[in-house]
Design goal:
Elements (H helix, E strand, L loop, with lengths): L2 H13 L2 H8 L3 H15 L4 E3 L4 E3 L1 H27 L4 E8 L2 H18 L2 E8 L2 H9 L5 E6 L6 E15 L10 E2 L1 H5 L2 E5 L4 H12 L5 E6 L2 H9 L4 E5 L4 H5 L4 E5 L5 E9 L6 H20 L8 H12 L1
Parallel strand pairs: 3-4, 3-5, 7-11, 8-9, 8-10
Antiparallel strand pairs: 1-2, 5-12, 6-10, 6-11, 6-12
Helix pairs in contact: 1-2, 1-3, 1-4, 2-3, 5-11
Length: 321
């Protein structure tokens, strides 16, 4: 039983096809088919049921996959530790990101700094949903992933990097564009453009309206924040997004922002990685750079909420004193 055979087994189980698994493993389809055939001969049992569209693990295949993933994690950790002990300057970082904003805005700068500190580092970046990236972490295919929190998965540790309050956004020509704060009742009556169901942000929004006893009008459900903002800009409806994601459009006058009255809805973003797993010097450096970057960004972009009438009176009273 060879490491490459176990990697082929894990890749096929994840992608469900020999073709996609071959691409992931950087081999031909014939080569990966041969590896699985040899593994089945050695174990004396069928590991996959082949169908015209996908491959399905047999019960024996599922049992072997559990052990294969543990073996691969230990194998990769051993190589990383030995590389560190031997003093090699080469390292590897397998990163996942569920945030388009993080991938386009902050990640390039962070990786540039990482390259300056770790000259020969090899970096791969995978995008996907938070749920999918967590599965890849548990499978040993990613070292770390930037995802939406919370995460409910055994053996996975998380670290909070950013809390971002949700706001409502609209086209500047909207009849209520002059308002600074909008009530839950007013918001529920708008044609809302929200993220797809299943994500943590959407669950927060649905929970907010449910707690208020309201059934909002959802006109569109889109998978990307950029798409939501563009639709709102054209006047197709009202969006609810993390405040940091819309700062540029608000500053440029393409969108207006409403704080949501009585709401404390925070989306949480952070890292996920294997609990108790080995972290290479490259991974540790990357985490440190991200912590510093997010701390600086949070302070620089901290939004100022409108003062309530009571707060304004107290401030004026303190000045007179």
């Amino acid at each position: 039983m060879e490491i490459r055979q176990l990697r082929a087994l894990a890749a096929i189980a994840e992608t469900r096809t020999f073709t996609a698994a071959a691409v992931r493993c950087h081999v031909t389809q014939a080569a990966i088919s041969m590896q699985i055939r040899q593994l089945e001969l050695e174990t004396g049992t069928l590991l996959f049921v082949r169908t015209p569209r996908r491959c399905v693990l047999t019960h024996a295949g599922e049992r072997l996959l559990e052990r294969a993933r543990r073996i691969l994690r230990e194998h990769d950790a051993a190589l990383s530790e030995l590389a560190e002990l031997s003093g090699t300057a080469h390292g590897r970082l397998r990163l996942g990101s569920a945030s388009a904003m993080f991938s386009s805005d902050q990640l390039p700068l962070i990786l540039q700094e990482l390259r300056a500190r770790c000259e020969n580092v090899e970096v791969t970046v995978t995008s996907g949903t938070s749920e999918a990236l967590v599965r890849q972490i548990t499978a040993g295919e990613l070292d770390i992933a930037f995802i939406s929190l919370p995460v409910e998965a055994r053996g996975v540790q998380t670290e909070l990097l950013l809390k971002d309050e949700l706001i409502a956004i609209a086209n500047p020509d909207h009849p209520l564009a002059h308002k600074r704060v909008i009530s839950a009742f007013e918001l529920a009556g708008q044609k809302l453009i929200l993220g797809e169901r299943g994500g943590n942000t959407r669950r927060l929004i649905d929970g907010f309206f449910a707690e208020a006893g309201l059934r909002p009008v959802v006109a569109m459900e889109l998978s990307r924040l950029t798409s939501i903002k563009r639709m709102v800009e054209t006047g197709m409806g009202v969006g609810i997004v993390p405040v940091r994601s819309a700062l540029e459009e608000i500053a440029g006058g393409r969108l207006v922002r409403w704080w949501i009255e009585g709401a404390q809805i925070n989306s949480e973003l952070g890292f996920a990685y294997l609990s108790g797993g080995y972290q290479s010097p490259v991974t540790q450096t990357f985490i440190s750079l991200c912590r510093a970057n997010f701390a600086a960004e949070t302070e620089a972009n901290r939004p100022r909420k409108p003062r309530t009438r009571v707060a304004r009176k107290l401030k004026a009273k303190s000045k007179r004193r």
